[in-house]
Amino acid sequence: MLDDLRELYQEVILDHGRNPRNYGKPDEASHRAAGHNPLCGDRISVYLDVDGEGVVRNAAFDGRGCAISQASASLMTEIVPGKTLAQVGALFRNFHGMCTSDAGAETDERLADEMDRLRVLSGVRQYPIRVKCATLAWHTMNAALQGEAEATTE
Amino acid sequence: MNPAVAEVAWRGADRAGPPAYDVDRVRADFPILSREVRGKPLTFLDSGASAQKPRAVIDAVSAVYEREYANIHRGVHYLSARATELHDEAREKVRAYLNAAETREIVFTRNATEAINLVASSFAARRLREGDEILLTELEHHANIVPWQLAAERAGAAVRAAPVDDDGLVDLEAFEAMLTPRTRMVAFTHISNVLGVVTPAREMTRLAREKGIPVLIDGAQSAVHLDVDVRDLGCDFFAFTGHKLYGPSGIGVLYGKAEHLEAMPPYQGGGDMIEYVTFEKTTFAAPPERFEAGTPNISGAIGLGAAIDYVNALGRDAVAAHERDLLRYATARLSDAPGVRLFGARGEKAGIVSFLQDDVHPHDVGTILDRDGIAVRVGHHCAQPLMDRFGISGTVRASIGLYNTREEIDRLVDSLHHVKEIFG
User: pTM of the prediction?
Assistant: First the structure.
């Protein structure tokens, strides 16, 4: 039983959940959005700084949530800086596919390392109700990039 | 309790008067309780969200469809008359259960939410003027907040909330002080769905009624755990739902004083709620039919009647005593569990215990308990203002039904050790 759960709550997740990276509202952000999971009432905000070339320079988040959603947001803000908006879009699609289907989505070779890092969250596939916890930060980032002020997992 | 012990308890009780509450026999009435979840025996501690159904209810609903089903009212044929009779009997059972004066005071709705919306729309909204107030408490479920907000918004009126203390107990003095000349309606829960705290409903109702302010009591939880007597409470309206009371989902009840229901316009228009219709004018049926437009949940009402029969047969006092014992036991065991912080553990309570473990998010606790076959509710429990009051985003809520056991409470506490193991 505990082995099952350790598959979901891997050390990396517990670590990021306890000590989220890039936590807090930055002074500068070109894009921001608030995300909301109506199921649990969790709210987070995602802040991105995108330069004129369409490359993400910085990513940060704040807000409260469960270990899964905090860890997912934390990992995301570590991974997206340096990526182009097109790459961020591809990561979002791949990550979403990984969380929702056993087959996962087609992974772009050039993003293989990033997807490897995100694989710690793939345990949510076994817990359909928790998929939204893992994807909340990503939906919120997507909304921010599309100029929407708010995202919800519904 | 093993069967041998149960047998002794049963025989012993024969000599000593009424039989002791035999929870093993009660559990045998609920088919779902014998199933396993994730390879573990089901530990169902989520009855506060929706209760499981006894065989008597399942059979009653099946029997309607297998033997006695047709649309009710106006049918001249045998089955229609028979279904109408069963539907009317169910209304009478609800009346008796609440000790209402007359069956016309019992309106069938879809659920407690619809019952509250009905009052907000057809009763409160018409009385509201700009600057008026509706008084609630900080304990309320969203279902007892949002309908009033919608009514208030249309009129330019305001919704206010009487405060509760750190244990979730209503501050009666503050409540009384918030009953102003502009207060047009008071609505509050009888039992907090988050904390299990029982509000001083009778006293609150008296205070409001003395000032001529009508009162609605949200009885979604109390109709299950307390021996509700609407005339003793003195309230104008009382709302509850069938599915928490071991009945089917999709059937709820609004009790309303006859004088109010008589004066209220319909909530929805349609068939079954009219007296006479022409294209120029329609006259409406008397209560309760005036508020029951369209074909109702016939089998649901009959199933609710069967649930009430079931609870009455067990004895409401016996059920309440059993639940009190379990709640005391759960509160004591959880108080002793490392890292557990209880919410609303003081004062009169029923059926519900809410807690957090260390700084672990309730959703994570819920997922771990689920792996042990334990069903609890996690999150804000549709009471976000109360979560804000306590400065938390949610809790873990274990709610007790008449079929739960001490052993199940033990399993819950044991499983919390797994939370500790994972989260350290």
Answer: 0.92
